Amino acid sequence: MRMRLLGLAAAAALLFSQSGCIKAILTNGQISATRTASGALDTVGDFEMARSSVAAGLAQFEGMHRLAPDNTDALFLLTKGWCGYGFAIAEDDMETAQDKNDEEMAAYHKKRARMAYERAIFYGLELLRHEDEGFEKARKNEETFKKWLNENFDDKDDAENLFWVGYAWLARVNVSKDEPALVGDLFIGVDLLEQSVKLNPEYNHYAGTTALGAYHARTAMSEMDQAQKLFEEALAKTNRKTLVVQLNYATRWACNKGDKALYEKLVNEVLTADDPDPQQRFTNMLAKRRARRALLKSRMEDCGF
Asked: Which domain holds residue 127?
């Protein structure tokens, strides 16, 4: 009888063990499929529909991460998702409030944007730790950080992870310019993007090149020649179908350069473009929303026009 009970206990333990493995396999499979399917939102040009989808997706990704905390697909979806939420939703709300001269709401949405980017960075750094855990030691200066990136992230597939962490890093600084500590670590975001572009410049329609162009055109006294070169390269490589290139070229380079003619030309090019790439409807729709704001008198006056 005792041997029978021991046998039953062993069988039950094996059954529960196998059940746990099966559950993990199913969960990981669902997360992997979700990552593959997530790109479908790029074809949606309806802002309100996309807005609700982004929020719902983030709730789903957070749940997936809770179920599978070490799953790198879930970490990627959270990094990209929170970064996209900060740019497409929170910053859009912030700009709308700014144009209404509603300082209280603008400040509120600015905090939302920063929170989104901080959450993207949190998950993104966890994602990078799956490759190597040396981030904290490497970040002490730019030399050690570049060395760490070159030694540990040298595969083309690393480009997408590096891009989203780097973009979130720069975006957080952009909405927190009054905090010296964050500005002082700006090189981290730049180096992440540069490594991403080096590994795969084509990723996300040359988004890394565009983001670096915006960075180098951050002020009238920054690296404007380098910025213009990057923007022109992105325009050529995307056949002018990625409208965020023209938008950033206008609102960053032409604005800080004081080139009103180029500013208006690029902004109007965005506004008159007729669905240049169905695979980029979402980002092109966002570019059009911001292009309309860019022609407002208050925003043009900010450029000195």
From this structure: 46-200
Contact (CB, 8 A) for 250 and 209: no
Cα–Cα distances in Å, from 223 out to 103, 227, 230, 281?
31, 6, 11, 31
Could you say which of 148, 180, 200 is where a domain stops?
200
Alpha-carbon span 47 to 112, nearest angstrom: 18
What is the spatial distance between Cα 176 and Cα 210, in angstroms, rounded to a whole number?
A: 21
Q: Please calculate the CA angle 88-93-95 and round it to the nearest 5 degrees.
A: 95
Helices 260-272 and 281-294, axial angle in degrees (round to 10): 140
Q: Is residue 11's pLDDT more than 50? A: no
80 and 192 belong to one structural domain: yes
Q: Are residues 55 and 194 in the same domain?
A: yes
Report the domain count for the chain: 2
Structure tokens at 139: 């970040």
Helices (H) and strands (E) in the chain, counts: 17, 0
Q: What angle do CA 252, 161, 226 make, to 5 degrees?
A: 30
* Residue (of 200, 288, 277, 279) closest to 239 by Cα position: 277
> Which tens digits make up the pLDDT trace of 73-104?
999 999 999 999 999 999 999 999 999 999 99
Q: DSSP class of residue 43?
A: G
For residues 117 and 190, state if they share a domain. Answer: yes
> Is residue 196 situated within a structural domain?
yes
User: What's 15's DSSP letter?
Assistant: H
How confident is the model over 138-159, as pLDDT tens digits? 999 999 999 999 999 999 999 9
- CA distance readout (Å), 206 to 138, 160, 167, 182, 238: 27, 11, 13, 26, 7
Could you tell me the pTM of the whole model?
A: 0.90
Q: What is the mean pLDDT of residues 104-130?
A: 98
Question: Please, which pLDDT band fits residue 164 given cuts at 50, 70 and 90?
Answer: very high
